[in-house]
Amino acid sequence: MAKRQTVWLSAMMILSLMVIGYYTVDGTLAPVPTSLSSDGKLMQPQAQGSGAQNSKPQDQTQGTQNNKATDAKQPDNAKAPDAKASDGKTQQQGQSGDSHQTMTGGDWFAQRFIDRETAYSQKVEQLQQVIADSKTSTDAKIKAEQDLKSLTEFAQKAEQAENRVMEQGFPEALITKDNDRITVTVQTNDLTKEQVAKIYGIVSKELNVPASQIVVSYKP
After folding, report:
1. Where is the composition biased (Basic and acidic residues) (predicted)?
2. Engineered SS bond to 108: which of 62, 103, 177, 182, CB 3.0-4.6 Å?
3. Which CATH superfamily is domain 103-219 in?
């Protein structure tokens, strides 16, 4: 008899558990929120008490790491060049590599014009000597004559382009050439994008060169 009562009680307990399981599966009980870990495995959230305690150290750790990362980046940002100079197309003259950096606007341009004309005269004289030398080969003479013609034409076109650029409101404009690179320097405290685009258009048209070969700079 005692054994039957034990079996009956066991059966009732099993039945009760089945009923609880039915209501749980049926959706009567609210589901527990779950989340995925970084490796894709399902994670059960911790109890509210322990989760709140664990979240604070984690936030503090993340904040410390972010601050360290920010501090590590600050020296690089401090060394970042001016936005206008970073693309290599618009630069301010008078930096460390400029031998006339201590000169003010008008004097700087005057000296640069003298330097350019001196270099031009020396190049012309050199080519004329090659052409006049009886020992110069025919091919060398032809090349020297072509170089002299190109040099003279560039000087004339550069002067025209400078005048047109100054018509845009700049007191001075200087064009120099280094191999295929054309540098245009104007006297101003700053340049807008519209002004730079206008200078590109003028110089590209007057000298018949692509804009990719032109560098626009300014000198206060």
Report:
1. 70-87
2. 103
3. Stage III sporulation protein AH-like (1.10.287.4300)
